[in-house]
Amino acid sequence: xxxxxxxxxxxxPSKRYVQGNGKLRGVPxxxxxxxxxxxxxxxxxxxxxxxxQRGNNNKQQEQRRTPxxxxxxxxxxxxxxxxxxxxxxxxxxxxxxxxxFPDSEMLGVDIVIPDFSYVEKNIEKLRGVVITHxxxxxxxxxxxxxxxxxxxxxxxTRLTIGLIEGKLREHALLDSVKLNTxxxxxxxxxxxxxxxxxxxxxxxxxxxxxAIHTPAGVLIHTGDFKVDYTPIEGGIIDLPRFAELGNKxxxxxxxxxxxxxxxxxxxxERKVGDNLEMLFAKGEGKRIIIATFASNIHRVQQIINNxxxxxRKVAVSGRSMVNVISVGIELGYLKVPDGVLIDIDMIxxxxxxxxxxxxxxxxxxxxxxxxxxxxxxxRKVSITPQDFIIISANPIPGNEKLVTRVVNDLMKLGxxxxxxxxxxxxxxxxxxQEEQKLMLSITKPKFFIPVHGEFKHLMKHKQTAMSVGIPExxxxxxxxxxxxxTDGVDMNITSEVPAGRVLVDxxxxxxxxxxxxxxxxxxxEDGLIIAVATIDRTVGEILAGPDLVSRGFxxxxxxxxxxxxxxxxxxxxxxxxxxxxxxxWNAIKGRMKDNLSDFIFTKTKRSPMILPIIMEI
Length: 617
What we know:
- Helix 6 packs across helix 12 (about 435-445), helix 7 (about 270-280) packs parallel to helix 8 and helix 12 (about 435-445) crosses helix 13 (about 455-465).
- Helix 11 links the parallel strand 19 and strand 20 (about 415-420).
- The strands form six sheets. Strands 10-9-8-6-5-4-22-23 form an eight-stranded mixed sheet.
- The protein is globular, with a radius of gyration of 30 Å.
- By secondary structure, it is an alpha/beta fold.
């Protein structure tokens, strides 16, 4: 690598990095006052020419450096499934390993994870996985990743690692993986690169962005963030560090685009606390049930505070809510006075006005605790007119109908329900346009890559970046699988790698593909007809059938005429095949399927899936 600041073009590693087997490995480095230079690994050598050369149009005078690749394998043109590879020379690491939840077209699918095939082909380069925060769309894919690559070290903050431990324990992986706890402003080495963790605010504590120090320059990845000057827990977003990096020269910024369509600023989480206090007063004399995201520990803390102030006990429902609250209390992120938290089995011992029930189901998920309550199927909670229910979350796009159905069902049972924006019982954890402008302005990146969002979010973020002076030609709108390459002077999409989605259905990972989904959709829309016949081909005679079995197509007892006509058609078709000495089973089945399909469509204008079965004696 060419470098004017080193001897004979060779860069010596910092003494604070641990070497092994001839390569620098990901080993945590504590920032200390005794050696400030270690906080920014070889900054003068790794970053490109200073900001003073930004306006120099003659790129020949800029120094091209060892190329770095940014390869998003999830989180672009979609919400969730965040997974980004950073690669340089013979080293690479991964930022986040999340999941996405299936859409309405993915019938029967439990979750969706990234395609790991590119990592598998380059596994010898992998130095580790760094995690920005503990939400499912950032850590949910880790168990499946670590099953394939169990020796990969994982780095995250204390709460994030605590939540990851719970997930790995469920998958019986905890004892076989390497989990490393880091703190903001700590740096770890990833081969020829280094990752510095920087505190940000989000809807879960211990969230971080990252400064990635590479031979080509400094890359910043914000993770999910917002600017909250009055956070419930922890410190304010480390804007001074982002600004310091901006003053020294940032090659590229990758920034959260989730709220890029929303003008202004995202409200502080404390605003929800003020409204919850008012709603607790409004619910006086009733049992209060609050549904929120399990991972929103800040929200749960404010619910507990209000319960304490009004003399109520707190019970918890929903597996994920129980798990997160347990980890939050264990690690000290949730402060719960003794005697306030009770088991859900004990709620019958108290009057309704003495109870606050915190539950999952704010998105109307069919199997969630709140959904089961709304259908009177919850084993321990029955909804009555004595319930005051608060849904403390806005519906994720696509979940509006599910949430509406749950609200309607709860109201039919007599409960009073507060939902969406009736009383401002939810604020986002993502930056709006003014906060995005602030991040762009203080980091002053040469190139900008909007991340975390659908295509419309990325494009809107692009417009915001242009409004603060980022040239349009320096903004990269990428898709999953695109290889974004930079040498410190230019940045372009140079190629593509295998990428996509892997569907998890039960214990099966990747065994449900497009064909299976197509068949499931076909079955769901038009149903199934099974045609069964037994033949003796030696004498060319039909011994039994054809018999028809309908599932999801028509009710046979009310469609006897149609089914009898279909049987006659199949009998004629099958006999013609035997008379013409047709010996190929697939050809016979194809003839039966085609003729029956045409007949049914003519009669009903429907196209059920048809499954012919022939048994030979």
